[in-house]
Amino acid sequence: MARGLFISFEGIDGVGKSTQVNLLAEHLAESGRQVFCTREPGGTELGDEIRALLLHGKGHVDARAEALLYAADRAQHVALEIEPRLAAGTDVITDRYLDSSVAYQGAGRELGYDEVRALSIFAVKGLLPQLTVLLDLEPATAAARLAGTELDRLESEKIEFFEAVRSGFLTLAKAEPERWLVLDASLPAEEIASLVRLRFASLIH
Ligand code: TYD
After folding, report:
1. Partner of 151 for a Cys bridge, out of 48, 106, 155, 171, CB 3.0 to 4.6 A?
2. What is the largest CA-CA distance in the chain?
3. What predicted TM-score, i.e. pTM, was given to this entire model?
4. Under a CB-based contact definition with an 8 Å cutoff, are residues 128 and 50 in contact?
């Protein structure tokens, strides 16, 4: 049986990733494909506990402890949820994956791209998506979209942090253009979704 396709959506907080995950999932299901949607952090029982520690824990979290917790979450996520489904022929769409660690912890927390990437690659035994969609948006616009919602520990970071994270994502996308699709997140959601579908189609033909 053919393996499922693995797609991740990335971007800073407030760019509309979950909307796009849902729109792509609907399209794939309508085309008769088996599809499973998930997210990081979280996606497993252990992951939900790690998510609560990371986003709502009290007190300072050391940057390396943060990177290791995201990596632990991801290891569990791949082993229990992602890899078995891909092996069974189901497409998996995830709201964030290892590039979030490289951008947030590597660039945002300044731990360095290479070390954080190596840590994540260890966690996932080298499993990379066939397609990663970057929804790119200026941090000020993204922050305005989050206004009025309750901000978690990461979302409460300063605009400079998100500038660094955004440029981290763009650097990653530039280095691996065959895996990444970079889209302007200020476009209407339907327009973004149709560009994603177009690129997805090129994966299966
Ligand atoms: P997010 O999916 O944006 O949660 P929500 O949409 O419910 O607020 O993820 C939570 C935060 O975790 C987000 O600010 C990005 C951050 N994050 C990292 O810093 N590193 C990582 O490896 C991942 C997966 C997320």
Report:
1. 155
2. 50
3. 0.97
4. no
88-141 confidence digits (pLDDT tens)? 999 999 999 999 999 999 999 999 999 999 999 999 999 999 999 999 999 999
Out of 104, 116, 120, 162, mutate this one to test ligand 1's pocket (max ligand atoms within 8 Å of CB): namely 104
The single-letter code of the amino acid at 98 is L
Q: How far apart are CA 2 and CA 150, in angstroms?
A: 42
Q: How many whole angstroms separate alpha carbon 15 and alpha carbon 143?
A: 9
Taking the C-alpha atoms of 22, 23, 29 and 32 in order, what is their torsion angle to the nearest 10 degrees? Answer: -160
Give dist(CA 34, CA 32) in Å, integer. 7
How many other β-carbons are positioned within 10 Å of the β-carbon of residue 9?
A: 29
- Does the pLDDT value for residue 58 go beyond 90? no
- What number of other Cβ atoms are within 10 A of residue 150's Cβ? 7
Q: Is 202 exposed, middle or buried (0-12, 13-18, 19+ CB in 10 A)?
A: exposed
CB atoms within 10 A of CB 173: 19
> What digits encode the pLDDT tens for the residues 141-157?
999 999 999 999 989 89
